[in-house]
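Chapter review: from sequence to fold.
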Amino acid sequence: MSGTTARRRGRPPRAESADTRDRILTAAREEFSAHGYEKTSVRGIAKTAGVDSALVHHYFGTKEQVFEAAVAVAFAPALNAPNALAEGPLDGVGERMTRFIFGVWENPTTRTPLLAIVRSAVNNETAAAVFRRLVAAQLMRRIAAQLDHPDAELRAELAAAQLVGTALMRYVIKLEPLASADLEQIIARVAPVVQHHLTAT
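The token string follows.
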């Protein structure tokens, strides 16, 4: 018998399992960011992660499910946005939420995966559907739950549309002069609109 220990068959140990999942998610974010949803394949994700394609399917299932898992991790910082509604007086919620969202976009660590998500969602309906599910279930409903209005969900979605639209023009399309404008100037102009959507009677 050789000096090397034979690897046991069956599921990998829990620590190894978590490490493999993390590597796959990191690889998926890199692949979706570089190639978009349509041109990214499970095989390409597996190659970048240094694993077999079967392991990607084992942990996540289809490419759509891999994308959704990668999106959920990348989108996690933005999910703290509803907390901005509870951090101070209601008449300042527009500025707090606007400042928080643009803070996420301005940070290179969180901006890169968000760019991958938005680009994929804009160009592919499957990716867009995943993005809608995540935004609706985990962000918009949480924000709406904190608003005391019968049309709270619509208000939350209009506020989000203002923020996402501005971010799209600034960070993805890079339309000038918006792309190079001072962040404080943008916040000063966008925050009152967000405030109106959320609280105006």
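Two observations follow directly from the output. Residues 14-39 form the longest helix (26 residues). Residues 102 and 167 are 8 Å apart (CA to CA).
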